[in-house]
Hints:
Layout: E1 7-12, H1 18-30, E2 34-39, H2 49-56, H3 74-80, E3 84-90, H4 92-99, H5 106-113, E4 120-125, H6 129-133, H7 135-146, E5 150-151, E6 155-158, E7 164-168, H8 172-182, E8 192-197, E9 202-205, E10 208-210, H9 217-228, E11 232-237, E12 249-252, H10 256-267, E13 272-275, E14 282-284, E15 305-307, H11 311-316, H12 319-322, E16 327-334, H13 338-349, E17 353-358, H14 359-362, E18 367-374, E19 377-385, H15 386-402
Helix pairs in contact: 1-2, 1-8, 3-5, 4-7, 9-15
Bound molecules: cytidine-5'-triphosphate.
Amino acid sequence: MELRDKHIVLGLTGGIACYKSAELCRLLIKQGASVQVVMSAAAERFITPLTMQALSNRPVYTSQWDERQPNSMAHINLGRDADAVLIAPCSADFMSRLAHGAADDLLSLLCLARPAHRVGLLLAPAMNREMWAHPATQRNAAQLQRDGAQVLGVGSGEQACGETGDGRMLEPQDLLCELIAFFQPKRLAGQRVLVTAGPTYEAIDPVRGITNLSSGKMGFAIARAAREAGAEVTLVAGPVALSTPRGVTRVDVRSAREMHVAAMAHAAQASLFIATAAVADWRPAHSAEHKIKKNGSGIAPQLQFVENPDILATLAHSDWAKSGSLLCVGFAAESEDLLANAQAKRLRKGVPLLVGNIGPATFGQDDNALLLVRADGVQEFARAPKLELARRLVEVCATMLGAGAPGVAA
Length: 410
Ligand code: CTP
């Protein structure tokens, strides 16, 4: 229920993507929002107000002359009650009219009349690729951003007209994520965050390898929470079957050495590094070129191991961390004695904050419990969904960043 107590005005303008707005409306309501649908005359050509009324469970407004409001001022009343106005789909024509402050139908009037300081305006453009790429549309998009609207961008792919390119409306699920993100405090605005997540895979031969049970869910939740908080986020992910959080740049890797290279390449630009990955400590000294076969002797092959680079320890001891330009946060997946292990690991890794969790109790789960260990004490986050914990952790990191270079000493 990410949108509990939120009241959203969902505006529809003319475009074939109106059919997706029915699903979007349903998703918003499932997350606890109340939704007031307002449609332009062009939108009514693509989907009926009846459909949107049935989904939102509220009468739909289409005209500024609607007399159902006691004072006949739908354009004022509807905007005053809202927490945000989301226009999806937002046509090229509507963007142009908004950019010029047009006020000749209910939806444009409502956007202009809303108290902009407390009612956000989010736009989900949808149009043919040429229309989207046209300088006039791009100029309008830039102007609307300057005026305080959030232009959510477009999807790419096959279009209703048969052409392929940029301009599709984002999928309802992506729009839902954007709206949820909109309401999160921007504690990491201007920061660049690097996250490692998931397991690594160390090849024994071309068909076998050594890995672990990390699902990557905690790291992906942290990447999402950091992006929601306004950061630019790079997520270096081991082999996991998770979709990339919206707005996050993902770098896929397989082995610990690949993860190390990717993390080092992005660390210079980062101000916060959160190492959630369950990196294999060891890898086979030799990865066989071909599949190792049974030779019938009954004797198992002997594997030799060499140590992998420790990404967190390397970055925690780097000049970036020492100069205070990079805050490093470690995780510890333990199976017992969490407090003592986490405290010892924090000092061993040389990080100001180490987050302990019980690996077998959390791997693959959607919730977790965390123990935050710092030089000045410990803090417990009770069992909760990983996204909720990630948001709380991001807040702690934002406070540490704001307080300057934090200490490692016990
Ligand atoms: N880590 C890392 N690179 C490694 C090993 C670990 O970056 N080669 C990071 C993990 O991402 C995590 C922290 O170090 O943030 C602790 O990882 P963990 O596997 O719990 O600790 P280890 O150093 O492997 O210690 P041990 O195996 O003794 O528990």
